[in-house]
Amino acid sequence: MIEIFVAPGGDDSGPGTRERPFATPGRAREAARAAAGDALVQFRGGTYPLEEPLELTEADSGRDGRRVVYQAFGYGTPGQEEVVLSGGRRVTVRQESGGVWAAVVGSLEPRQLHVAGHRAERASIDALPGAAVMTETGYTTDSAGPLDWRSPGDVEFVHRGVYPWTEARCGVAAVAAQDGTTVITMAQPAFGRALDLYNSTWQGMTTRGPGLPTRIENDAAFLTRPGTFVVDRSAPGAHVVRYLPRPGERPEDVVVPALETLLRVTGARDVSLRGLTFADATWTRPSGPEGFLHYHGSGFYEGGPVFTVSLGEGVGSVSVPDESATIPACVVLDDVSGVTVEGCRFTRLGATGLGVGGGAEVTVRGCDFDTLSAGGLTVTRGARDVLVEDNWIHHVGLDYPGSPGVALQGTTRCTVSRNHVAETPHCGIVAGPGRGTRVVGNVATGTMSVLAAGGGVYLSGPQGESYEDGAVIRGNVITDTRTPYNFGLYCDYGAAWVTVEDNVVARADTTAILHVSPPLEHVVYRGNVWDADPMGADAPPPGVTYEDNTTLADEAELLAATEAVRSRAGLLTPRPGLPAEPLHSTAS
C-alpha cells in the first residue's frame, strides 16, 4: 500500500511523505489518483480550510479489488489525530457601539455563524407587532415598529406549524408606511407559492396561506441578546455580519461558513473515508426570493402543481405538492459503489450532513452527526444496499426542524441498524416509499421536540409487493416523543407490506396509530411492548393485523419485560455522554 501524507504545515510541491507532507487535500487526491494499487491518504491533525469543494470522481476509485482510503492519522488508535475539513472563513471583526462585533464578508451571505466552535443564533423577535393581517402580497399592521427595521430586505419570516409538521421561511421585500398603516411586502415567488401550497380544512375550518409569522429573524434592530447575529446585505459585495458576543468570547474565534458543499464523490467505487470531521458549511437558497417552503421531512416545495389529500371523512384535508425537492447535503455521495464512511463527524453544517443519492453498497458506520441545520443523513434516488449502522445523530434540524435524523426515500434493501437518534425537532428515522427497508435495533429518544404529527420512527407509502420484500421495523426502542399530537412508532399515508414487531415504545403522546388516510394495507403489528394501547387497537382496520402485543403501563414491568430487546438496541460503540440504559432519554 502506498501512503500519502498531508498536513496543515505541508508543501504541495513536496513528495507527500511522512517527513515532507503535502499541504492540501486536493494535492493528496492527485497523488492517490496516480498511485498504482492501494492508496492510503493520511491526514495529520489540524484544520484544512477548503477554498472549493473537494471532488472525487470515477478516476479516484480503487482498482482491481483494491481501495483508496482517506483517513485521520492514527485512525482507530488512542493516538488518532483530529482532522477538520472546513468550509469556513475566519473573519476580522471591528467593534461597534453597544459592544457589537462587525465584519465585512464580501459577497458571502451566511445563515450560520460559529464562535469558538459554538453555534450562534440569528437575532429575532417573537411576532409581528401590532394588529397584523395577512394580505395577498404580505401583511399590514397598525404598528410602526417594522418601519424601524434597518435592512428590511434581509428580514425573514418564520412560520412554524403552518401544518403541524411544517415550518416555512419567507423573506421580506419592502416595508413602507401607507395611509396610517405599515405595509410589509413579501418576496416573490415565495409568498405567492406559500398561498398556493398551504391550504387546509380541519373540522369545518378553512385556512389559506402561511398565516402570521411565529418568529421574525435577521435585522440589526433585533440584536439585543448575547450570542446572536445578523447579516446585512444592503451593500452589494460588502455584506456585514454583526454579532453580540457572550462574556469571555474573543473576536479572533469568529468563523463564517462559506462553502455549501465540502466533499462530493461522484461515480467512484471502493473508497473509504475514516475519522474525518466535516464542518462549517452553509446553504444560502432560503435567503433568496424563493424562500424555504417546507412540506414534510427533508422535502420542500419549489413550485408546480399541488393536490388535495383527504384526512378522512368529516376530518379535513391538506394541500400536498406534486413534487418536492430534497434539502441538499454538505457531503455528497452520488452514484457511488463500495464506498465506506466510518468514524467521521458531521458538525456545524447549514444543511443536511451526508447525502447518498443513487449507487449501491454504501456503508455509513460509527459516525457522529450533530449541530446541523437540517437532517443527519438522507438516502435517495434509488440507492441500493445501503447500511446505516452505529451512528449517533443528535441536535439536528436546528434551522429546518422538519428534518429527520435519518431519511430514506425511494431506496431498495437499505438497512438502518443500531443507531441512536436523539434530540430531533421532528421525526427520528423516516422511511418513505421503497422496497426491502430494514429499521432494526435503533434507539430514538427525545424526538418531536418542536413540530407535531410524526414519530420516533415514521414510515409512509408502499414498501414492496409482499411481506418478503416489504419493510421490517423490528427491535427498536422509542422513548420520549415530546410534543402533543405525536405517534411514537408511526406507519402513515398508505403504508403497505410492513412488519412491525418486537419494538418498545414508552412516553409518547400516542404509542402508535392504526387508522390513517390513505389507509394501511398489509401491515402487521406483532410482539411489540408499549406503555399505552395504540390508537385504534380496539378495532384494527381491515388492512392491519394486530396480534400478541403487550401494554404495560407500569415502567418497572415494562423494563423487566423488554430487557432482551433493549440490550440489543442502540449503538454498538458507546459514546461519551450517552446513558447505557436506552429507555432513558438524553438531556438537551
TrEMBL record:
Pfam families: Beta_helix. SUPFAM superfamilies: Pectin lyase-like. Residues 329-460 form the Right handed beta helix domain. PANTHER family: RIGHT HANDED BETA HELIX DOMAIN-CONTAINING PROTEIN (PTHR36453:SF1), SECRETED PROTEIN-RELATED (PTHR36453). This is Right-handed parallel beta-helix repeat-containing protein. It comes from Nonomuraea montanisoli.
